[in-house]
Amino acid sequence: MLRKLCILCCCIIGLFMGNISSAEILQVSDFPASGLEGWEKKEFKNSTAYQLFQIKNKPVLLAESRNGASALIKKVHVDIKKFPFLNWMWRIENRLDTADETTKSGDDYAARIYVIIDGGIFIWRTKAVNYVWANRAAKGEIWENAFAGKNAQMMALRNRQDNVSTWYVEKRNVYEDLKRLFGIRVHSIDAIAIMTDTDNSHGQAKAYYGDIFFSDK
Which domain holds residue 34? Predict the structure, then answer.
């Protein structure tokens, strides 16, 4: 089974890179070349373990959480007018048994990617969109984060209907998403974060993330 998953992973990676070969890209992570260089850990409660892991000689990021919540954050200024598309791969190894994800008790996700606009000293101006692997929320559903309110919008890209132990390729037009979610035209973002968290449900989760990059198409 592991051999089949590794072969599938390599096939998806090849297909993924082939689809964007003619696009201009801006790399956020380069796990094979740079590892976790530039990524800072932010702990909220206990700790999610993040480490590089080899799948068929391809380094990816492994996240394991046991009743914990911590994120990896990378400060990267991106002109999303020029590079509007955020691209990544991810997969989860188990589903979380969470209830209503719009509540604080349900605010756990096996995998999520944050796009952050830094408000600087005006912290109330900081905004974020969270692309999440939800449990009960329908794909495409959007809601305010239970802790941060309207300035952190959640968007379900995957849910419990998607297979575990399976790589999925994502591509989001961040420029259009931010305009839709906040009603403003944002021309740049300031950071990307990765998070696998289980502190509210007191469960455990295991997920993998592939390289993250922006592209012009």
Answer: 2-215
Q: How many domains does the chain have?
A: 1
- pLDDT by residue for the chain (217 residues), tens only, comes to 433 334 334 444 454 555 555 779 999 999 999 999 999 999 998 899 999 999 888 899 999 999 999 999 999 999 999 999 999 999 999 999 887 899 999 999 999 999 999 977 566 679 999 999 999 899 999 999 999 999 999 999 999 999 999 999 999 999 999 999 999 899 999 999 999 999 998 999 999 999 999 999 9
Closest CA to 111 of 26, 193, 15: 193
At 88, list the tokens: 């990544």
User: Which residue in 211, 193, 207 sits closest to 49, CA to CA?
Assistant: 207
Provide the residue type at 14 as one letter: G
What is the CATH classification number for the domain harbouring 89? 2.60.120.260
Tell me whether residue 48 is exposed, middle or buried, using C-beta atoms within 10 angstroms of its C-beta: 0 to 12, 13 to 18, 19 or more: buried
Report the predicted TM-score, pTM, of the whole model to 2 decimal places: 0.88
- Measure the N-to-C terminal CA separation of the chain; round to a whole number of Å: 35
Give per-residue burial for 156-182: e unless 16+ CB within 10 Å, then b. bbbbeeeeeeebbebebebbebbeebe
Cβ atoms 61, 194 nearer than 8 A: yes
